[in-house]
Amino acid sequence: MMFREAKERASKEGEVIGLASRVVPISHGMERAEIRVEVPFQVYLGRRLGVGTYLGVAPVVAGTLILGRVRAVERADILAVSRVPAISPAEDLSAITTPLALELELLSEDVQGEVVPPTSPVDPQSPVFLPGREFLRKMLGVPVDGVKIGVVAEGHRESGVDLRLTWEVLRHHVLVVGTTGAGKTNLLRVLVSGSERPVVVFDVQGDYVSTAVASGGRVLVPVAGRYERPTDFMNTFLRRSGLERFRAIEVNDGPEFVLSDGSRTFRLRPFGVRSGESYGLLADVSPFFSAQGAYFFKQAARECRGDLESWETCSRSLSKFKVHQQTVDNITRSVYALRNTGLVDVKLGGNYLGEPDYEELGFGVTVVDLRWAAEEGVQSAVLAAFVVATRLFQMADRRYREEGKETPMLLVFDEAHEFFPQGRREEGKESMERMINRLMRLGRVRGIGTVLATHRPTDLNDIVLTLTNTKIALRADQDALKRVEMEEYSGLLRVAPPGLGVLRSFAVGVHDVAFRALKFQEESETNS
To answer: What secondary structure does DSSP assign to 281-341, as a single string?
Structure first.
């Protein structure tokens, strides 16, 4: 009677293919949640069962349903089962018609409709079944809403169950780790193009410009003043981005170019920072100043409203603050470095470049193209990114304080180790860690989420690792996986194909979920 009821429960959720083992004791507990199951040879022939396959179990006595994942497979010749020594190594096909043995890691249990960690005993001969999609989705606890980034994987195969990231996951910050060619850029493009919230991407390589173009968004470019006319910069940008078909159909103040190829339209805005209007901002976000240097730089700047070119005059006011010579030297070096970033007090076509209207970034997809800034040095690209990120935080903070409202926005940092490194010199470390806290701790409360991607997590600041509550590992070496505490997947991920990854998040019901990422397709590709 109990066996029949267990089989009926299993049959409702999938196809029964085997039984919990009769030949070894079945035990699981807090430290070890694995059991042995056996699949008849004829069933094994017709099913693709392997490491990573999800299976359900219907315990005979408990009356519940349990989801498990295959951790190991075992095949044995009849001689090995009967422990009879072989006289000769002759082939005998009938001798391998033994059951397929599987080691099943128990993941979750359905107890009266509630999915909880597995605790019930699994009885010998409990039916084992291939679960249907809805049962699998329910038992994994994957969200039904949010941005679809891929499909839950069973080994290297797709299960048919969508994997989505909700806004709650994104606002609690996501870290993506993977070596070059593992599929990080593709995954971020899928995420950016599918986001229902505004997205700002900080792009060092120019990989996401086409994503902004495809979505009709905008591209911001901090650009050194090496162009005589704004159109010279526009043409260079289009050529370097493979967008020669686009033409300016409108030019607004700034300058801002509205560009179109007849079917798609996007906005291009070169920008810079006026030092006379932004002394406080530059001191807060610059990677050059020490904590004392930033403080006294701002004090002196308040008394002298010139730009950096006239700093030597302003710097005389430092003497009345009795600033230590080491701090004065730091300020002097930092001012020199700021002048050479190619971002501060930059002219284009004879006019100074200002900052964009950040309220406009609260819609659609914006890419901050840092290629020109990176050519001046990594610190220039970091400074430009921190200026934009801080302005967006200030906008969200103002709305939060004055209106009590959040400003939902997703900030994406590719090559995150360049922005938030682990081993930065002491002078800039404090300002960088303040930036992390501002964006990831205070920003979350104000509606700002971050996604950070890197192929070098060993170089990433510890605070970032602590504050990212969801981690995604793609193909990576053992050291990288160890850094994000996912080294148990090194066997799978060291040789994984592009797009195969493991997600670890508070938002799913089980510890980890393997998945295959969607392949990003631009509109121009799908329409061709």
So the answer is: HHHHH-SS--HHHHHHHHHHHHT----GGGHHHHGGGGGGGT--HHHHHHHHHHHHHHHTS
Q: Collapse the DSSP code of 138 into the 3-class scheme (helix H, G, I; strand E, B; otherwise coil) and give the result.
A: helix
Q: What is the C-alpha to C-alpha distance for residues 237 and 235, in angstroms, rounded to an integer?
A: 5
* CA gap 210, 380 in Å, rounded: 23
Q: Say if CB 306 and CB 314 are below 8 A apart.
A: yes
Distance (Å, whole) CA 66 – CA 136 = 10
Instruction: Name which of 187, 206, 179 is nearest 458 in CA terms.
Output: 179
CB atoms < 10 A from the CB of 124, how many?
15
Helix H or strand E segment including 451: strand 448-454
At 169, list the tokens.
């996951």
Sign, CA torsion 378/380/384/387: positive
First to last CA, the chain: 61
Burial status of residue 263 (CB atoms within 10 A of its CB: 0-12, 13-18, 19 or more): exposed
Please state the length of the chain: 528
> Cβ–Cβ contacts within 10 Å for residue 405, how many?
12
Task: Please tell me whether the overall predicted TM-score, pTM, comes out greater than 0.85 for this model.
Answer: yes
Residue with tokens 């938002």: 507
Residue 527 has pLDDT above 60, yes or no: no
Phi, psi of 322 (to 5 degrees): 55, 50
Query: For position 528, what pLDDT does the model report?
Result: 34
* Tokens representing residue 31 in the block: 């430290």
Determine the number of helices (DSSP H) and then strands (DSSP E) in the chain.
21, 23
Residue with structure tokens 């800034």?
373
Beta-carbon contacts of residue 357 (< 8 Å; ≥ 6 apart): none
Average pLDDT (168-191) is 95
Beta strands in 47-97 (DSSP E): 54-57, 65-74
Query: 40 near 113, Cβ under 8 Å?
Result: no
Token digits of residue 439: 């964006």
**Separation between Cα atoms, residue 404 and residue 516, nearest integer Å:** 39
The burial class, CB within 10 Å (0-12 / 13-18 / 19+), for 377 is: middle
* pLDDT at 228 (0 to 100): 81
User: Which 8-state DSSP code applies to residue 438?
Assistant: I
**Mean pLDDT of the 96-112 span:** 93
How far apart, in whole angstroms, are the C-alpha atoms of residue 400 and residue 408? 11
Please give the Cα distance from 353 to 375 (Å, whole number). Answer: 18
How far is it, in rounded angstroms, from Cα 292 to Cα 298? 10
Token reading at 354: 């200002």
435 and 448 in contact (C-beta within 8 Å)?
no
Residues 407, 379 contacting (CB under 8 angstroms): no
Q: Please give the Cα distance from 225 to 353 (Å, whole number).
A: 9
Domains of the chain: 2-140 (no CATH), 164-272+346-527 (3.40.50.300), 275-329 (no CATH)
* Bridge partners of residue 503, in order along the sequence: 472, 513
pLDDT for 193 beyond 60: yes
